[in-house]
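lol forgot to send this yesterday, sorry. struct tokens for the thing we talked abt
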């Protein structure tokens, strides 16, 4: 007979867990009830252990979005909140959350407040998700709050993917250019040097430098490879430090072409977040603080702190944004229209969609310029090396090109 692992509550509300042997799941449930226990979770021991191994995998943004959507749909279908959480906890798709969902359902049955229970058991959500859940719980529209949180997570994930995809192609071109140049230096140039039988030292300055670099790379390939690995490991360790990532993000917004795209992505994230929070009846000042914390560029956060102080002092949001010159005029004008018409959240949604579209259009233009520019630079570098090789051969053999 199979062995079952269980988590349950005693008659006085204490949590217990253990194992029992039963013919099947129903028999195991009957045995738990006979012992006076209220089952919270029950699984065959072997399956539970395999699942706990899977739990070591980290939940990604798609997992969080799927979880919020599924619970919201179950609630709209008439399922109670605790039961919806239990259904999600039994789903293999959400095993990446570990025991968080099981413990969340247990806390809800104990009467723990929903926002507090979520914060205590699933700590990987952004801060605004907890605020939206709390707002939905207080206004009686929990499913709406969960869906709004899911939509905002989707927006953040889409912006993050757009930035990542925008950087993949330039990095690929740069990597291929470096790889091609290293191949020529390490394998082609030394062969030409061998053909010249040491006479390459008599060459003009530029061809001489090309041969010297090629031979140096060939003779020190292992040392240079080790140095490259050390640099890569150092960069990885630095990347794990938040201050280093902050400095890179600050550098990113100052790039000639991609910097404007990063700023528009931040503007879209801020406006979409603020609109979602306001639609869920969260006060403006509190919404501004939560929206600010969703940004990644510290310099923008610092200027938005000044905007929040101005709003607390009685200034209109549009006027405060214009005074500190944070976002472009189009976004500020939309916010002003929203304030005057009493439809600020709707105008912010429109501004977020506009910023996202502008960012996509900009990155298309950047990529359209980047491809020929990268090909031109790579072609010039490789062409210069090839011309220097043929110049060397012509110089040694006194042949005019």
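and heres what i got for the seq, position by position
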């Amino acid at each position: 007979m199979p062995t079952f692992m269980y988590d349950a509550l005693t008659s006085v509300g204490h949590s217990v867990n253990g194992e029992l042997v039963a013919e099947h799941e129903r028999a195991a449930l009957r045995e738990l009830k006979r012992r006076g226990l209220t089952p919270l979770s029950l699984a065959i021991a072997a399956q539970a252990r395999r699942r706990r191994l899977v739990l070591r995998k980290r939940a990604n943004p798609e997992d969080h979005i799927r979880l919020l959507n599924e619970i919201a749909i179950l609630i709209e279908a008439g399922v109670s909140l605790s039961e919806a959480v239990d259904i999600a906890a039994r789903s293999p798709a959400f095993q990446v959350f570990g025991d968080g969902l099981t413990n969340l359902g247990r806390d809800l049955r104990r009467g723990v407040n929903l926002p507090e229970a979520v914060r205590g058991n699933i700590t990987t959500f952004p801060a605004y998700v907890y605020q939206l859940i709390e707002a939905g719980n207080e206004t009686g529209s929990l499913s709406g709050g969960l869906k709004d949180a899911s939509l905002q997570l989707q927006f953040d994930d889409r912006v993050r993917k757009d930035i990542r995809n925008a950087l993949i192609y330039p990095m690929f071109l740069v990597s291929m250019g470096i790889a091609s140049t290293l191949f020529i230096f390490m394998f082609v140039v030394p062969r030409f040097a061998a053909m010249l039988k040491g006479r390459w030292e008599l060459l003009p300055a530029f061809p001489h430098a090309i041969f010297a670099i090629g031979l140096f790379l060939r003779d020190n390939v292992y040392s240079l490879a080790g140095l490259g690995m050390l640099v890569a490991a150092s960069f990885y360790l630095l990347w794990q430090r938040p201050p280093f990532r902050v400095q890179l993000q600050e550098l990113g917004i100052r790039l000639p072409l991609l910097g404007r795209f990063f700023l528009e992505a931040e503007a879209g994230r801020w406006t979409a977040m603020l609109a979602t929070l306001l639609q869920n009846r969260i006060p403006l000042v509190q919404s501004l603080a939560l929206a600010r914390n969703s940004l990644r560029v510290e310099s923008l956060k610092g200027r938005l702190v000044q905007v929040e102080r101005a709003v607390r002092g009685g200034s209109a949001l549009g006027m405060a944004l214009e005074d500190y010159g944070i976002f472009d005029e189009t976004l500020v004008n939309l916010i002003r229209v929203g304030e005057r018409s009493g439809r600020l959240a709707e105008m912010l949604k429109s501004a977020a969609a506009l910023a996202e579209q502008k960012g996509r259009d900009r990155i298309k233009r950047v990529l359209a310029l980047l491809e020929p520019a990268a090909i031109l630079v790579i072609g010039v570098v490789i062409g210069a090396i090839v011309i220097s090789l043929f110049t060397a051969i012509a110089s040694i053999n006194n042949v005019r090109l």
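The radius of gyration is 30 Å. anyway ping me if u want another try
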